[in-house]
Amino acid sequence: MGFSNWKLDELDKVQPNEFFELVQKNKTRIENTLTITVANCESQEKINQYFKIKNQNQINKTDFYFYIRNIETNNLIGYIGIKKIDYKILKCELFYFVDKNFEGKGIISKAVKQIINHCFEELLMNKIIICTSKINIGSQQIALKHNFKQEGILRNERLNHLNEYEDIVYFGLLKSDYII
């Protein structure tokens, strides 16, 4: 059974401290995949600076950030974003996570669908990519559910939180392949 009492909020409707709490609560689950986010949530000072950078990125239209909020409690329960936007070749990358207490309820899948539509319809992208750790099966399933095609495995592509190299599974979705 899905959880339908959630909404997407934009950056200007989110306080750094509530995002800090969400990341801290899920740190052990996401530190391998969202290393930059976790690193910027080590202190209140860092998260405040991180939000200033995010705000500037959004003004510059290089990244966009959305936050999943539980309508009943008003708490943040997830995070989804668009990064590495290339307006010349019309390509971007998605990233996301949901609080451990809301996993498996279809929230990320529905949020990803909304953001895919935003990428193709509003940002006029031609291709969306998702890059995920080889061990992050849930993220891979989300990509496949939305008709992304596995395009390859990038070896030693990223350093994880332990400063170890990690292979990344690369998925792509072309606008011509997307079914609304």
Polypeptide structure, described:
This protein has 180 residues and is an alpha+beta fold. It contains five helices and seven strands; from the N terminus they run βαααβββαβαββ. It has a seven-stranded mixed beta sheet, with helices on both faces. Helix 1 (16-30) packs across helix 3 (44-59). The two termini are 23 Å apart. The model has no long low-confidence stretch (mean pLDDT 94).
Order of helices and strands: EHHHEEEHEHEE
Q: What best-fitting shape do the alpha-carbon axes yield?
A: globular
Strand line-up of the largest beta sheet: 1-2-3-4-5-7-6
Number of helices: 5
Structural class: alpha+beta
Radius of gyration: 16 Å
Uncertain stretches: none
Major sheet summary line:
7 strands, mixed
Helical residue percent band? 25-40%
Q: Kindly, what is the distance between the CA atoms of the first and last residues, rounded to a whole number of angstroms?
A: 23 Å
Secondary structure: number of strands: 7
Average pLDDT for all residues? 94
Strand content: 25-35%
